[in-house]
Amino acid sequence: MAGYAGKHVVVVGAGCTGLGLASFFLDRGALVTLSDSRKREDLAGVKELADRGLRFDCGGHDAALLAKADLIAISPGIPLTVPAVVAAVQAGVPVLGEIEIAARELTAPMVAITGTNGKSTTTCLLGEILRCWNRRAFVGGNLGTPLIEATQRSDWDWIVAEISSFQLEAIETFRPRYGLLLNLTEDHLDRYPDMADYLAAKLRLFENMTVDEVAVLNADDPLVVACTANLSCQKVFFSSSRVPEEGMGLAGEHIVWRHAGQQQRFPVADLRLKGLHNVENVMAALIPPLLEGCPAEVAWQAVCGFGGLDHRMVMVRELNGVTWYDDSKGTNVGSVIKSLAGLAAPVTLIAGGKDKGGDYAPLAASVRGKVAHLILIGQAADRMQEAFAGLTEILRADTLEKAVQLAHQVTVVGGAVLLSPGCSSFDMFRSYAERGEIFCRAVLTLQAKG
């Protein structure tokens, strides 16, 4: 579609991304309808858009309306399997996702980061490196600020975008200069029929990349290596178990970078971020700027100054010899495994939430080895109790606040309490951030034991 003026565009989904898309198309003279399953009075942030001429299709998705559109712009939270969207596709209406629409407008080179875990940390690390290098960098995507917001300016030097599998479902020509695939573990099986479909969505990141672009890949993840064996683009690997001949790896207490016959070493002890998974995130983030000519000392100073993200293994407090950690962003089994690996036993683990249909079995060894008490909340509690029965003491709580009180009662001196749910938050909370904030407030109001 050469231009949007006068075109009828239906934006499906009235979340943050959908509102950004609606504003984008209104700015370009399109006739825009916002379609959402909720009632109009339940939609937040739409008044200003309505004043600008936005139309509404609320309480469901009108199949006839979508079938007559010139373009459907679909939010990542809306599956392509929605019947009205399927019917529109069959009628020949193009359906594009937000990152495809945004990327067509952006001229700055892009680093796109995907994977099951570590995306947000790696995205923020890259943003810090580019800013320390005095580059104007947009940092967003699935991380928070929708990529479509980057189109409001034309002077970016770089675009750094966290990209989810949901966002990749509706691309056509999307092609970053660097595509980072950090790891692949089971996730989002409430959306995908099986692991193969989840992987296929993730791998669309590389679909349009050529020999002019670079894939940055985790050499220690067998699934990543196998799935990317036949890519057309260049490949650069990082590893926490060895140092690749060309790439970045961990050797003892140093990260080693080898490229074009040169070698540089960086002391891991300088990093504020802790844990092997964060070393991997740092390595992945360093590679694109170093390949682009960023001075090594600038890049290293930037990553050393980064203290981590909210709700991602953040120590909340120490009370009565017990340390409390907020890892509300740990929304899948792989993430919980990595978080437990960084703690010494005994751990009281608070887990549960909206079940995403995955297999909890890979977490069993970590529970058996580290977790003295498992406190379950939310919709997934029954499935999780069945998966971990006999491995540790299992307790149940109706609310997160009650789970905190239980943890306070049962955790011994020298232990740790970890909120790492392994599930999404949407059964009880608006977001993982709200879940983490409620946890922190409950922890900070605990009274010392007499």
Question: What's the arrangement of secondary structure elements?
Answer:
Layout lengths: L7 E5 L3 H12 L3 E6 L10 H5 L3 E4 L4 H5 L3 E4 L8 H8 L4 E3 H6 L6 E5 L4 H14 L4 E5 L16 E5 L2 H4 L9 E4 L13 H9 L10 E5 L3 H6 L6 E6 L7 E5 L2 E6 L2 E6 L8 H16 L4 H9 L9 E6 L2 E5 L6 H9 L5 E5 L12 H7 E6 L4 H8 L4 E4 L3 H11 L5 E4 L12 H13 L6
Parallel strand pairs: 1-2, 1-4, 2-3, 4-5, 6-8, 6-9, 7-8, 9-10, 10-11, 11-12, 16-20, 17-18, 17-20, 18-19
Antiparallel strand pairs: 12-13, 13-14, 15-16
What can be said about this structure in brief?
With 450 residues, the chain is α/β, with parallel strands linked by helices.
What brief labels describe this structure?
alpha/beta; 3 domains; globular; 450 residues; nine-stranded mixed sheet; Rossmann fold
Q: Biggest β-sheet, characterized?
A: 9 strands, mixed
Global geometry: globular
The proportion of strand residues reads 15-25%
Strand order of the largest sheet: 7-8-6-9-10-11-12-13-14
Q: What is the residue-mean pLDDT, rounded to a whole number?
A: 95
Instruction: Give the CATH architecture of the largest domain.
Output: 3-Layer(aba) Sandwich
Uncertain spans, ≥5 residues at pLDDT below 50?
none
Number of continuous helical runs = 16
Total number of domains: 3
Helix content: 25-40%
